[in-house]
Structures are given as structure tokens and as C-alpha cells.
Amino acid sequence: MRSATDSPGAGGRGTPRPGRRFLAVLGVLITLVLGGAPPASAHPISTSAVLLDLGADEVTAKIELPLDELGSAFGRTYTPSNVLDPATITGLRSYVRAHMSATDPGDRTWVTTVTGGMVENIDGIDHLVLDATLTPSTGTVGDFTLDYDAVIDRLASHRVFVSARWGHSGDYTTLVMLSWQRQSVPVVSAAAPASTDGFLSAVQLGVEHISGGSDHLLFLIMLLLPAPLLAKRHRWVPRTDPRRAGWRVVHVVTAFAIGHSITLALGALGLVHLPTRLVESGIALSVLVSAIHAIRPLVRRGEVLIAGTFGLLHGLAFAALLGELDLSRANLVVTLLGFNAGIELTQLLVVALVMPSLIMLSRTVIYPYWRIGVAALGALLAAAWLAERTGITSTNPVEPVSDVLVDHPLVLAAGFAALALTAVTTQRIRASARPSG
Hints:
Elements: H1 18-36, E1 48-54, E2 59-66, H2 67-74, H3 86-98, E3 100-103, E4 111-122, E5 125-135, E6 144-148, E7 160-166, E8 173-178, E9 184-188, H4 195-211, H5 214-224, E10 231-232, E11 238-239, H6 242-268, H7 276-295, H8 302-323, H9 329-361, H10 367-389, H11 399-407, H12 409-433
Parallel strand pairs: 1-7
Antiparallel strand pairs: 1-2, 2-5, 3-6, 4-5, 6-9, 7-8, 10-11
């Protein structure tokens, strides 16, 4: 006979059901996010933009630099008033000019000038906007290489979107996202690209964005950790069925894809919008919840529910990125499809790199300890992000740890595979050496 606490209809006097526990934890965490966020604050992960206009005899550019990132790069606070101080703006022009150059196929360097200086509020964030002119030595604009690393040279987490249009009219086409790993556009064509080129550029942008986002990657990895835990033979060794584990991974990836695709489309079309800080804080929260679930399940098979629910927030972050590109409706559709395809390809690559080793390791006695240790590290990183993005702290002391996830993914995947292989081999050797009967 079941006790009252075992009854499906048991209320508040019994032990809370896992689903209610999940909702309770989620509610508390969301309250902390909303309560901790200051009413007006800068985007914690701002990006720069370089908008190129290609003419017949010169290339002009509009450079958008977020003041919060400039302040972090130079160790000071920039405001809309003090950044336009004559000495300050002159120094920033010189800095950008020193970190922006163009060369033609003959390795001839173009003349670069940087002028102007005004503050614009873009997506709720104050940006310093500068004007630049790139003039070829031949007097005629042809294909060229653009090198640019302003702010990137000082902040490894910074990203720069480079877009271009031809003839000083029409829509901008996104060319590439620059980072500390990639600081140049190898070929900027003097001729407008075909529509297929725009799609492929968007695919590349999606791949680079999610592979460069340690929070997005960590969220997916935390959701993969419980996948092999289908049943237990005894206390510490899970009984793994690769087929069932594989299907669970499919469900997780599909739920996340559906969630972020919905809000990516709605957000990119301007139908849904949330403050950037709230979205970024919510993403940190998603990593924290998935890490807690990996340590101790909040709800049975809850990784699918978590993936779909928080996928909606991740989609809004992706949409905010596309919003910074100022695309037309026609261009937006192509970019949206390509960008989403890039995200899904990267997800599949992460699963392909991690899941075989995960299933192999789950057959050993060390997996529970390893799973809890990795999930605890994920929870620590997520808590630090959450504190920074809600304004509780001004810096993130564990950011270098999260950067390793982005900077060395193949090394980490290879190390994980080596660990899994070593653990399985050791366990088999011990099992064969154990006396029978």
C-alpha cells in the first residue's frame, strides 16, 4: 500500500514531486535574476560592427564601438559625454586607425583615415561611432583584404561583425565575425556577391557565433551529461543502452532546436523583444539549471523540458545578434535560414565529439563522480556569469576557465576520449583479473 507521500495526488504535506521541485527551483532562480538586475545597465556581452560601403575609388566605413567594451578594454569608464572629449576622441581615432588596414592582392597597403565621432544608442547600448576611409593606391577599388582588431587586441571575448554593401545603397551583407582567433577578412570582393554567398556567410556566422559562445556550448554539454543514465545495475554503475541514450540526445537537440528557432525567427522579425541584459542573464540561468539537473535530476527526463524551455531564451540572444546587422526583410530571410543552419551544424558536431566518449565512460564506475564534478564546474561558471550579468558583481574571476572551452574544443574532446578509453580499459583488465566464482 502506498503512503500519502507516494500518491500522485499528494499535495504540499508530502515530498514534492520532481516536476514541482523543478518549477520551484526555476521560480526562485528567475526571481533572483529579475530582482538582481538593475533597471538600466549596459549589455554584458556587447559587440562592435564595421559597416563597409564599397565605391568605385574608395571604401568608406562606419565603425560602431560599444562604450562598455571600450571601457573594459582601456580600464576606464566611458560615458556619452566624456568619450567625446577632444583629447579622448583623438586618441580613440588614432587607436582604431592603427588597428584597421586594407591591402590589395599585390600587398599594396591602402591609405586609412579615421574621422568623426558621435554617440549613438544602438539596441539600448551607447556606442561611439567613427567614420573611416580606405583608399587604394591604384585609385580603383578592387578585391582587398581587411585587417581589424580594435578592442579584440585587449579583450579576448570581444566580437566584431563586418558587413558590406556595394554602391553606397541597398542592404548590407554580413561577411564575417571577427574574434581574437580571426582578425581579418581574407577577400572583400569589389563586386556584390550572389545570394548564395550571403546564405553561406550566414551559415559561417552561425557556426562562429555558437562555437564562440561558451555559455551556449556549456548549456548543451550539461544537457548531454544525464543522457546515458537510463537505469542502474547497482548504486554507482549505470546500465547504458546506446540506442536509448542516442534517442534521448535526439530529443534534447530537437527540443533545443525548436525552442531557439521559434524565438530566433520571431525576434529577428521584430515580433518579440526582451531587454538584452535579461536575455543574457536568462542564458546564464539556463546553464545553472541544466548543471543542477545533471548533478541531481530536477524532473524525470527533464533535460528535454529544460532544452525546449530555455531554448526560447537562447533564440532571443541569436535574434539580438542578427538585429545588430540591420538587415532588410529580404536579406533577413536568407540570413535567418543560413544562421540557423550554422547553429544546428555546430550542435551536431558537439554531439558527435562528446557523446561516444560519454557513453563509453558511463559504463565505468568513475562516471558518477566525473559527471558530478563536470556539472559542478558548469554550475560554478554559470553562477559567475549570472552574478556578472545581473550586476551583482562587476567582474567574472572564472572567465578564463570558460574561455578554455571555446579556445581548445578539440583538445578537450581528445582528452575526454582518452579518459573514457583509459577508464574502460582499466575496468576490463580488473574484471578479467578478478577470480571467478
